[in-house]
Amino acid sequence: MVTPEDIKGWIEENLEGSRVEITGDGHHFEAEIICDGFEGKNRIQQHQMVYGALGDRMKAQIHALSMRTLTSKEKNAQ
């Protein structure tokens, strides 16, 4: 079974400079992903970057992932 720590590691390893906070029960996960690489991209493009970082795991191992994507600047403004 996939753990939140697994998903955190996969994203942080494959999305340069990202910081991830994730919770979940093994089937459904919620993530906050902070990455300056999101700068200038719309939400769809940001989510595509995360899906790219996870690769085929989104098809086989991760059933549901709800994500919130932010740049460092957006996170600091909160």
Key traits:
single chain, 78 residues, alpha+beta, GMP Synthetase, Chain A, domain 3, three-stranded mixed beta sheet, globular
Ordered list of secondary-structure elements with their pairings:
Elements: H1 4-14, E1 19-24, E2 28-34, H2 43-54, H3 57-60, E3 64-70, H4 72-76
Parallel strand pairs: 2-3
Antiparallel strand pairs: 1-2
Please describe what this structure looks like.
This protein has helices at 4-14, 43-54, 57-60, 72-76, and strands at residues 19-24, 28-34, 64-70. It has 78 residues and is an alpha+beta fold. It has a single domain (4-76), classed as GMP Synthetase, Chain A, domain 3, CATH 3.30.300.90. The model has no long low-confidence stretch (mean pLDDT 95).
Sheet with the most strands, sense and barrel status: 3 strands, mixed
Q: Oligomerization state of this entry? A: single chain
Q: Give the spatial strand order of the biggest sheet.
A: 1-2-3
Q: Would you tell me the overall average pLDDT?
A: 95
Basic shape: globular
Span of the ends, CA to CA: 34 Å
Number of helices: 4
Beta-strand content: 25-35%
Structural class: alpha+beta
Q: Structurally, how many domains make up the residues?
A: 1
State Rg.
12 Å
By CATH, the superfamily comes out as BolA-like
Helix content: 40-55%
Q: Please report the total strand number as a whole number.
A: 3
CATH first level: which class? Alpha Beta
Reported by name, the CATH topology is: GMP Synthetase, Chain A, domain 3
Low-confidence parts, pLDDT < 50 over ≥5 residues? none
User: Any idea what the CATH architecture is?
Assistant: 2-Layer Sandwich
Order of helices and strands: HEEHHEH
